[in-house]
Amino acid sequence: MKLRTLPSRQVHLDFHTSPHIEGIGEKFDKARWQDTLLEARVNSITLFSKCHHGWSYHPTKVGKMHPHLKFDLLRAQYDACKEVGIAAPIYLSAGVDNLAAEEHPEWRQIDPEGRYDGWAKSPLKPGFIMLDFLSPYTDYLCAQIEEVTKLFPDCDGIFLDIIAQNPGCSIWRMNYMATQGWDAEKPEDQEKASEVALARYYEMTTQAAQRTNPDMPIFHNSGHIPRGRRDILRYFSHLELESLPTGGWGYDHFPMSAKYVENLDMDFLGMTGKFHTTWGEFGGLKHPNALRYECAAMQAFNSKCSIGDQLHPGGKLDESTYRSIGQAYREVESREPWVLGAKSVSDIGVLSSEAENISHRQNAADEGITRILLEGHFLFELIDRDMDFSRFKLLILPDEVRIDETLKSRLDAYLANGGRLLLTGESGLWKDGEGFAFDIGAEFSGASPFSPDFVLPIEELRGDFVFSPVVMYLRSQRIKVTTGQSLGEVFDPYFNRTYAHFCSHQHTPFREEPSGYDCGVRKGNITYLAHPVFSLYRTYGAVAYRHFITNVIESLLGAQRSLETSLPSTGRVALNRQENRHILHLLYANTVSRGGKMDLSGGTVSGAGLSLEVIEELLPLRDVTVRLRNLPPIGKVTLEPQGNEVPFTESDGVLELKVAEFACHQMLALVPLDS
């Protein structure tokens, strides 16, 4: 499909509206709509054809228009946008549709226990209902999509939402598994059937969206871009990285997603929300400073911007929301000359555990290493096995990346060309064999019988406050160093905690004598750590873990590390190349944890005992130093968009500069001497 350039300041406007609410769209005012969006510097807004409730917001011959809508609301919104040069993609709910489910209950997903599946597990609970893509529902959905593209052939894309199929046992799944000779009682065959349902969906809906216009942009949203699933990308014109920090994603999720998708050679945007919690929150507003930071982070990580909102049933855009969006988007607009077309500079490639194991949504190893590298201010990307390894000075395989012959061949070639490799936990072990796929310089004895155990790294790798063994809560692999260099000792507990023998509140203390096993080993270009350290950090967040891991990474990069900075661990840094110059981004926001047990009906955040990561004040940082290597000779450094020159020194290939003060976000343009 022909790609279009994504608008850079978008709004994703939800409009999931109950049939029991009257006066739909009656407060829509064309002039006010236009003025509000233009004042907020919005250049694209996603408008609704059909919502999760199943209602359409325009006359339709396929579905049903909302019972309390008396005019073509979508056409009115669309024409108002187009008249003032604002792009307008169109949204249809795909995976959930309560109206269709009520009229055709046989189309619903059924879980393996025979219960209706979806966000509402009981007829007595409010929530949305999931449909089975192997059922005739997909034909109905495609007819709706095709109708919209005929009504709005020049729209700026089709956005399809909630693209998920759980393993289940609907009549459609049971019949399909029977025709394939699969065993419906096996979870793996149920999973295969759900993948077939998804494949059917992608093929049919993409054809429907592009039947009228073969170049129609299309995006299928599942709340996460799955790393390693390149097979589905042919159905996408671009990517939208849904990532509401307060909606359950947190502030490190977006960088993790961006650092993978940037390698896919597809235009992409980040999608946050104006909500204090998550989607569907009326009257919920995060502080404008949070939106400012979130949009700055999108630009630093080479993304376009989108902010989620939900329109009141009356059809009037909320004044508070668009004042906040305007604050953020005026800054975004001012920075665009220094971000559009930029590409990141990286030292480290992380072979994604999610991509290797095709895990769903959350992956502790990937999340943990992302946090470690962001907090340690390393330049990195997440990659899959089909991407170019040779670009990186160091490859890290986090915690659970086992090795097959194909991957072994690629890694051998990388190592033969001087690359460095860091393996942790089960990474580096054969997938379908015994022992390690590489000579790590140690004898392998399988998984430890003890959990937790304790480690005391060698002095150069410890944190500055660690002088005795540190507890490691996840199970290690047993190694004894033979021809490599030990990175420290493992101390076993007296025994595992059981009903028969336990000690104190949590776990048994360590024996005073080392176990004889090592916590890590280095041989040549390969370093191995015996614990799943990235999953440990994601789960427990111990500073001692981070110091140990970052010291190991620093020792591997040495003088090849491109950037060092005095930013605190909560600061973020990015270095990008834009045409003939480099753009350095410094980010800082002091997040605080607020709230407690929540009672939210539906939505992404629905668990008890959660708190929210909130940004309110944007405190300034002063005298931030940055040291850069591997750059061409630099002639000028300027703060942008201010345009003020910054003094710097260059010695032995190291450029050093200091930023006297900044708050939230500061760009620095580094212009080569010969420009």
> Radius of gyration, Cα only, in angstroms?
27 Å
- As a percent range, the share of strand residues is 15-25%
Cα(first) to Cα(last) distance is 37 Å
Side by side, the strands of the main sheet go 5-4-3-2-1-8-7-6
Shape, principal axes of CA atoms: globular
For the biggest sheet, the summary is: 8 strands, parallel
Estimated helix fraction: 10-25%
Number of strands: 31
Structural class: alpha/beta
The tally of helices reads 14
| Integer average pLDDT | 94
Which runs of at least 5 residues are low in confidence (pLDDT < 50)? none
Key words describing this protein structure:
675 residues; alpha/beta; eight-stranded parallel sheet; seven-stranded mixed sheet; 14 helices
Brief rundown of the structure:
This protein is of the alpha/beta class. The longest helix has 23 residues, at 187-209.
Characterize the structure shown:
This protein has 675 residues and is of the alpha/beta class. It is built from 14 helices and 31 strands. An 8-stranded parallel sheet has the order 5-4-3-2-1-8-7-6. A 7-stranded mixed sheet has the order 11-10-12-13-21-20-18. β2, α2 (73-83) and β3 (90-93) form a beta-alpha-beta unit. The protein is globular. The protein starts with 8 loop residues before the first strand and ends with a strand. The model has no long low-confidence stretch (mean pLDDT 94).
